[in-house]
Design brief:
The chain is of the alpha/beta class. It has 5 helices and 9 strands, in the order βαβαββαβαβββαβ. Strands 1, 2, 3, 4, 5, 6, 7, 8 and 9 form a 9-stranded mixed β-sheet that branches. The longest helix has 9 residues. It is globular and about 40 Å long.
Length: 179
């Protein structure tokens, strides 16, 4: 699927294309036959580590940012893909995976498992294969933006393709508002 850029200009992007992605992630895209996505990668001079920073830089809604969050689940790592406006309900993850213990992974575990630093973890193309859950909220958009392997770069992808390429199971693990 070809992604059309519907944002307003480059919003301060310093560089675009293949050179803007982390080399490991660029290689993962090539291996999956997704080389065309490299053209959409945007690199920003200031880090876009948070969903809010990424949305502001790209010029999209906060919920169009795909966060790649690593959790420790009964001693195994699990990647949860969540929209930028949402928070992961750890209890929902525990129930979904029929697990005893679920906690956010340490920065060291994130880097060891994925090969990327927190704030730049892409939804696929990791050093090791992990189980992946994608919150259903991501499917509400035509396009979402995810990290391209560095805290300075993002790329657009259709949510259904994101789920397929990440090997994700679509679930509902978004924290519900109290009340």
């Amino acid at each position: 699927m070809t992604i059309e850029h519907r944002t307003h200009g480059t919003n301060g992007a310093a560089g675009d294309g293949a050179g803007a992605a982390h080399p490991r992630f660029a290689e993962a895209l090539r291996e999956q036959g997704l080389e065309e996505l490299l053209a959409g990668v945007r690199r920003y001079p200031d880090a876009v580590r948070t969903a809010a920073e990424a949305a502001a830089a790209v010029g999209c809604e906060l919920s169009q940012i795909c966060k790649s969050l690593i959790f420790a689940v009964d001693g195994e790592t699990v990647l949860v893909l969540m929209d930028g406006a949402g928070r992961v309900d750890v209890e929902a993850v525990r129930r979904e995976l029929d697990a005893k213990e679920v906690a956010r992974a340490t920065a060291a575990t994130v880097r060891e498992t994925t090969g990327y630093a927190i704030g730049g973890v892409p939804p696929f193309g990791h050093r090791t294969r992990t189980r992946v859950l994608a919150d259903r909220s991501l499917l509400a958009h035509e396009v979402v933006w995810a990290a391209a392997g560095t805290p300075h770069s993002v790329f657009p992808i259709a949510p259904a393709e994101l789920v397929e390429r990440a090997g994700a199971t679509v679930v509902e693990v978004r924290e519900r508002a109290a009340g």
